[in-house]
Amino acid sequence: MKKITRKSVLVMCLFCASLLSLNAQEKSKKVSNDLTRLLDVSSSYKNYKVIEKGAISNFQSTLNNYIRQEQNTQASLRKELKVNEDKILGLQNQMNELKKSNEVLLNEKASISFLGFLIDKKNYSIVMWTLFIGTLLVSLVLLFKFKAANKITNNSKSLLKDLEKEYDSYRRVCIEREQNLRRQLFEEAKKNKELMNAS
User: Fold this and answer.
1) Quick one: which of 8, 49, 116, 184 could link to 42 by a disulfide (CB 3.0–4.6 Å)?
2) Listed residues 54, 83, 109: the one ending a domain
3) pLDDT tens across 66-81, in order?
């Protein structure tokens, strides 16, 4: 855009200069023709040209008009150049602002706001995939540990049930033995009483 603007301003200035130079050439031809006609119309006196005062006054006024017009043209060209320079500066400033806003937009597009910080999308993707895979691995480890602990718990429960059954059977055996011993003790005590009563 910068090159296009400078080129267009340059072309416009060259166009104006060529128009003004054509106009100036026409005016300078008119002044030159007036001077030639003045010299041709004037009479000669010993290698000097005698020019009428009216003719020289007309030529002087024509020359003064030409000089004024050229000065006005130069002043308008300077103003136009100043305006064009201001436009160029304005366009350059606008282009710089657009470049800055474009860079900001590109940075925003290439990054993601995460916890109030701008993070590059690639880095964000790497962090998120790392967190996802890490969470998945931790979940798998915990799952395998849970299964192993569950297996140990189930084995412990089955061992406890077996021990409880064995304990119940041992307790029954002990109760039966105790009952048998009490019966035997009761029978012996009865026999002793009978023997004591008989003696």
Assistant:
1) 49
2) 109
3) 888 889 999 999 999 9
